[in-house]
Amino acid sequence: MARILIVEDDDHIRTALRLMFEGEGFVVDDAPTGEIGVALFTRMASDVAIIDVMLPGMTGFETCQALREASDLPIVIVSARDDTVDVVLGLESGADDYVTKPFVPEELLARVKAHLRRRPEKSTNAFKLGELFVVPDEGVVRHSDGTELHLTSTEFRLLTDLASANGKVLSREDLLERVWGYDYFGDSRLVDVHIRRLRMKIEPDAANPMFLVTVRGAGYKLVL
Amino acid sequence: MRRRSLRLRLLVTFGLGSFILSSMFASLTYFGVQRLLVNNQQQTDLRQSYVNAALVRSTLYTSPPQLSNLLTSIQKATASIVLVQTHNQWLARSDASSTKDVSKGIIKLVNDGHPVQQTLNVNGQVIFVVGVPIPAVETQVFEVFPLANLEHTLRVLLLVLVLGALATSIIGMSGGLWVTRRAVRPLEEVSLAAALIADGALTTRLVVTQADREVQQLTESFNEMVSQLVQRLERDARFASDVSHELRSPLTTLATTASVLQQHRADLSPAGQESLDLLLADLSIFQSLVEDLLEMARSDAGAVPLVMESVEAIELLHQSVRSSARRHGLDEPVVEVDANVDDPLVRVDRRRFERVITNLLDNAHRYARGVIALRVTRTATQLFINVDDAGPGIPVDERDAVFERFFRGRAAHDRGIARGTGLGLALVRDHVRAFGGTIAVLESPEGGARFQIVLPIVEGGQE
């Protein structure tokens, strides 16, 4: 029984979403503000969260950041605008995915379920990435001194999927299918922002990546 | 064409006008002066000839043999020729003169005792002849004055006047040219600016110069008009965008609530279920409409920047076709790539490109039982993506109109086809234009419609 946190200031939408997710068998915690949402999350340990970007007081981005600092749970943000600014800001603040109002409820449901279903299935052999050591079976990345490098589950999945391609180029669309787990032609910004975040963590110089390489017009590949 | 004719007309008017005026002035001057000069000369000559006739008479009385000397001295003094006739015999005359200069008519009149004066043209020489009878001694004195000097003066005057008239005409024409330029240039600027604005360069304004008041007024009112127009366009775009924005929240609630009802479908009566189906169907149209309106308002207002990237066109096309077809549950059409098409790069916004493909597939699905194939060819600089179907095709007179917003062709009226938003193809055209490309409707080899997208091929570029 999955536990979902819904942070949405519009009463009608919040109620409708609660009814829908309850109908699908979720246990729903809903909050009208970011502050209440964060408080609920620390008490309830939700499995997945939906956060509206436009919130009074603490913004959706800030709420997202607060949740991300505490947990790896999948976060879907709901943006009022399809602007690059909103979407990128949301993804930068730690969200795994986004939908735009007016969204199709079934699509939101499908995305949330896909995120929950997503568990490391294929096991790739452990591999070295510069001074980093990636162990897919344990789901961890370690520095050479044994300390752990923290990746979100989406980032980890992105890394291991690129590794399992054995140096082949994966297009953004391939990555959307493999990592996000639903075959919709999503927004390539979703991939780009996550790649950027991943580079910040694993590359010695994120501006000149040596492992996670962009292949112009085609996609990304991992150079081991 | 009009501009040229105005210019020509002004030039001709000014040139011709100044020419006519100056020639009229010149002719009046010439004939006036000629008359005055000739009259004066004749008066002088007449008086002179009477004096000379008196001299001849007194010489004939006193010492006739001196007559010849007298005539010579008169000729020297006045440059005229004196002929004296007594008893119908030529008595004496100046040197180098001829009686032929004096016509028989004059001689007869003078013989009859009448004094005569007459201007004659003899062999191209204008002469003034005066005949004075002296009845007391039955003598007639004729004096011939050449008017050659006067003629010369008049000829010089004529030359000066003609040259003056020509100069005036040229000055008039240059004046015309100047006026034309001054009057027509602002018009040209206005028409250029208007053309730019019509092409979408809405920031175009005329430069306000220190020119004539009328031109300045034209400039200012033109700029004012454009500003008003732009404001109005922006207001309209903002209004469409605001309306769509306001619809988002209630629409989200509606859609979510409807899906909750769908979850509890089994609890509903048959009438309730049927109503729910209608609700769901129209909600999805409503939702697409709002999405399309928002997308359109955004690109109208230029609010959302294009995210242009250089991408491998064929790969992007394959991906777009596959995901569009899958997402909408349509059959995936084949992509036939011409042998000479290697791996061209095009500069597009990926999300909008996918939208273009989706809308074209959707359109073909509605009106033509789906797309048969996407056929790709290229030239050195352009990539052609032909989206072909085997449907009824699109009548030639509707081929431009299908890209208009909310256009409904005869096909849609004739066969109750499932409603689209009416914005799909308009968005397609907006997006393709934003990529610097074009789209047109032709006929496919199967006799259906062919939507042909032409995109410029870029050699390089960066992500």
List keywords for this structure.
heterodimer, A: alpha/beta, Rossmann fold, Arc Repressor Mutant, subunit A, 2 domains, 5-stranded parallel beta sheet, 4-stranded antiparallel beta sheet, B: 463 residues, Beta-Lactamase, 3 domains, 7-stranded mixed beta sheet, 5-stranded antiparallel beta sheet, 10 helices
If you had to describe this structure to a student in words, what would you say it looks like?
The complex is a heterodimer of chains A (224) and B (463). Chain A has 224 residues and is an alpha/beta fold. Chain A is built from 8 helices and 11 strands. In chain A, strand 1 (3-7), helix 1 (11-23) and strand 2 (27-31) form a beta-alpha-beta unit. The longest helix of chain A has 15 residues, at 188-202. Chain B is α+β, with helices and mostly antiparallel strands. Chain B has 10 helices and 12 strands. In chain B, helix 1 packs antiparallel against helix 2, helix 4 packs parallel to helix 5 and helix 8 runs antiparallel to helix 10 (424-434). The two termini of chain B are 48 Å apart. Chains A and B meet through helix 1 and helix 5 of A and helix 5, helix 6, strand 6, helix 7 and helix 8 of B.
